[in-house]
Design goal:
With 289 residues, this protein is an alpha/beta fold. The protein is built from 11 helices and 8 strands. Helix 8 runs antiparallel to helix 9 and helix 9 runs antiparallel to helix 11.
Length: 289
């Protein structure tokens, strides 16, 4: 049976002055807990992790375990620019009860395969008792895990999967060809929930599903029953939701507001939605919430 997991990429709420809004973040988590999705991906790009301190990341990880772990899997992202920071974040995640972690490649400085091999071997050693995912996001980090290196990482203790963002489906297929069948591969492309499965993906890690999960759940249900007409309609709904909201956290917060969830604002330099964008968001919420 083809696996099509949906893991919700969780936004983090901030006050107007940029301060971390824990109660707003809790409201978002409580909303996501009702989505019916298989899991949540916490403190990733959608969570603006690069703008958070170590202590703030710990607070969000603890909150996520409290609100989401009773309902779904929780993958806590512990990536950082240095191995020193990653080790601290892994221990922090372990301390709040996380059992699954994701680790982005180092970023800012370019890394050779030799450096990345050493990095992920050390991450593997630090992850005893946890299930770890390698997080590939070349467009944000400047660093890439080659197919050959992914084959090596997949054999390391504790590594059980990968999240792959903004890479073509052909790269998903290339990874799938060199890793064990049990190694989970998730795409970060919301639109590709259905098509990615044909290239070896086991599901999607989706920011849009944090706001509008229904079209994603409808697509999975239709695929399970082999209903091509319903799958096509669900894909059109997913495309509509993604076009309105995309990977834009400011748009996600605007949609939450329409849904009655005060999710605060963003901390990073993200342009607020225009009047035209707000109209698109409102229509998408009306159609798909």
């Amino acid at each position: 049976m083809t696996r099509r997991d949906i893991l919700t990429a969780l936004p983090v709420a901030f006050a107007d002055d940029g301060a971390l809004d824990l109660e707003g973040s809790r409201r978002i988590a409580q909303y996501v807990a009702t989505s019916g999705n298989e899991g949540a991906f916490v403190l990733g790009t959608t969570g603006e992790f690069v703008s958070l301190s170590l202590e703030e990341r710990g607070e969000i990880a603890r909150l996520a375990m409290e609100e989401l772990a009773p309902h779904m899997r929780v993958v806590v992202h512990v990536g950082a620019a240095s191995l020193y920071e990653v080790r601290r974040l892994i221990q922090q995640a372990r301390d709040v009860g996380a059992t699954e972690v994701a680790v982005l490649t180092p970023y800012y400085l370019p890394c050779t395969d030799v450096a990345l091999r050493h990095f992920f071997r050390e991450v593997s050693a630090a992850s005893d008792g946890l299930q770890a995912y390698v997080y590939v996001y070349r467009k944000r980090t400047g660093n890439f895990v080659s197919t050959e290196l992914m084959a090596e990482i997949a054999q390391l203790p504790n590594f059980v999967g990968a999240k792959v963002s903004e890479e073509p489906l052909e790269q998903i297929a290339a990874y799938r060809a060199v890793v064990p069948d049990s190694f989970l591969i998730y795409t970060g492309a919301d639109r590709e929930l259905l098509t990615a499965a044909d290239h070896g993906a086991d599901g999607v890690i989706s920011g849009v599903s944090s706001v509008l999960p229904k079209p994603f759940r409808a697509a999975v249900a239709a695929a399970e029953h082999g209903d091509e007409a319903v799958m096509s309609a669900a894909q059109a709904d997913i495309d509509d939701a993604v076009s309105a909201i995309g990977g834009d956290m400011a748009r996600m917060k605007a949609a939450y507001k329409l849904l009655g969830v005060d999710g605060g604002t963003t901390r990073m330099a993200i342009e607020p939605p225009s009047a035209e964008a707000l109209e698109l968001i409102a229509r998408a919420v009306e159609r798909h919430a």
